[in-house]
Amino acid sequence: MSKRPSIGFAKFAAVEKGTAIVLVAAEGKTAAEAESIVGPALLSRIIGVSDFKGKLAATLSTVAPSTELESLVLVGTGDPAKLKADDWLKIGGAAFSKLGKAKDVSVILALQASEISAENAAEFALGMLLRAYTFDKYKTKKGKNEDEAKESKSAASITIHVADPQAAKKAFSDVEAIAAGVTLARDLVNEPANILGPVEFAERVEELKKLDVKVEILSEKDMKKLGMGSLLGVAQGSVRPARLAIMEWHGGRGKDKPIAFVGKGVTFDSGGISIKPAAGMDEMKGDMGGAAAVTGLMHALASRKARVNAVGIIGLVENMVNGDAQRPGDIVTSMSGQTIEVLNTDAEGRLVLADALYYCNDRFNPKFMVNLATLTGAIMVALGVYRAGLFSNDDTLATQLFDAGEATGEKLWRMPLGDEYDKLIDTKNADMKNIGGRHGGAIIAAQFLKRFVGDTPWAHLDVAGTAMGSPATEYSQSWASGFGVRLLDRLVRDNFEGY
To answer: Which of the residues 169, 186, 285, 350 is marked catalytic?
Structure first.
């Protein structure tokens, strides 16, 4: 698994050993603190000979000449005045990518005529932590001698030199909590389906009790009593029983309504009888990316003692094919009492979320609900893999989510809802059907969910293109990105925390 580096902060000081990292702004500009490492003339010569322009997240690694240092790493920041969103994460991730086997690392976090805040320093460190993530727990380490094995298990010790170490440490304490939440979400999505089924996922959720999160796990028997026919219908073709996990974090005032997050947790999706093509089906182990993000978020909120009351609910099922599997044409009754004609068993995520959303709203009466789901391929056709789809019945909540996405780099784009789309899921055989035709598939799925939220402010995030298999970035090299944890933590921090 990941070799998490240890990160500390210190005042600017001479660096005499190990690896030194210095920042270079656009046009090769460096700060005096960086120039002191090897001398201004030599640093200028290195930049000139290599034609290093200091573009954002560009890197150059070289043997440190005429010093006791092992190596010198230059990292570009571009124009400091134009840095925004997740740029400091990119810079930190790019810096970490050049460490190799380095164990003793010093970062000179300074720019010429530009102030680097404690928050910037913490974001830089977060970029390093996220870039350090790997998922290799199932790789055997054959052929290594004892010294190599010991070295492979040791992690870098990184000291970030800043103007105000105490402020940076304080900012970093929250960042560490977010990093842990993202790591948890990535781990869950990366796990193979034979290891992580609904029961095993629920067991991972129960570990949050160590952080004072109240956890309750509902069994199939419990859900049957509640009338969750929509969710249970998806699970009936699998020998692995369904679970509903409820997480509660009480960090706000007792009288405050909670804010709620709901996740789709299909631990493997074969498509059911409407079976998926074989090509790429292995990736359906990640069809619980929404549930992973909610779990990671609750971990982050509890770890940093967020001053808010929050609820996380995830519906955990496996969608498989056997003699008991749900058939196209079956009609199920949801917990809300509404009936659903299941015309496609591969449109199963919305069936899981229907009961989870209704349960959440009915039991907790939250201020709002945000659900996350790897729900449709259609959203990837519309938006590609760089933004998640945002659907909402509330303009204020939609704006808050969009802004949080722009601030974190986990970007969203609002998609339409409307009566003309809602009519497409009407059917003569039940209250609704679970598909509505070829066109506008992501919107139709959102309209389906909207029927289970009542008047509560609600948003649906379709993260099919961003939670798994998304493009690698400077701070995410994992197949599972952990998308949604940083986004929703920022939503909470900016709009709902404090008293």
So the answer is: 350
